[in-house]
């Protein structure tokens, strides 16, 4: 019986590999070539950054800091970051890079019993797609509405405004703007122009054609961003991942230059250590990590699968995780400096301006 291992070297000669093994390796090589790779490291980094950095960083994180003790919230946040966020982030990325498979087949290749994890993550992704595409449609509606000399949400002179509409920045100090009936033109534009909220669930209302067209446009844009795989996605992210940072820098510079900005920043950072005794604070920190790091969605596995096999994904993951959390921290300064200005202009406490970011 021949106990020699195929592909090994014996007495100076190489033992031929088993034909089945050669065929399997050839199939895996062809599959990798068909999937393709990122053209360079920057495309991968920008793609992941564009995936994980969004509204969860710009608005939700600062709000959770305010809600859960200001600077004290960083303690549970950092604990969950180093014990859950970074390890799972690295696990999913390395799994995709090692197997060169997507969010479902990567788990199947690792262990057929784990295939259900991949399917569960895809169910979550489908539900999130319906949620985020609506937000994009709203954003497009606001974008198109802003192409006017006077912003439609800046005054109470439009057909959708009610008699209760009050322009707070122009309100006289003697005017009682704290009544329950007073509403801002921003809120009325949102509720009565964008959404056109009906009186109740029993009144369906008419189809919002403008929003429907914005929704269609959002789907079309998403399609053309991914229709050629990494070839198209790798080019789109040069804009989609960098432009938000440019806007964040502009917002930060403008925000900290406004009167009342320092009060807003102090409100954002002031630590209330007694809040650490509340279990809800720790729950919010954990959910924020999983939410903002796009963990358990399969997208990190899919994006990592286009890396080269010997890519240093550990270094990439560490850099991306710190970039994500750093963006959240800096965004807090931009948001709360503006909230401090708004509170000073309206003559109300910052706590009344900083409404729920969830």
From TrEMBL:
It is a multi-pass membrane protein. It is found in: Membrane. GO terms for molecular function: gamma-aminobutyric acid:sodium:chloride symporter activity; metal ion binding. Residues 20-30 have a biased composition (Basic and acidic residues). Its main location: membrane. The chain crosses the membrane at residues 74-95, 116-144, 209-230, 242-269, 289-306, 318-343. InterPro entries: Na/ntran_symport, SNS_sf. SUPFAM superfamilies: SNF-like. Disulfide bonds join 156-165. This is Transporter. It comes from Mauremys mutica (yellowpond turtle). The lineage of its organism: Eukaryota, Metazoa, Chordata, Craniata, Vertebrata.
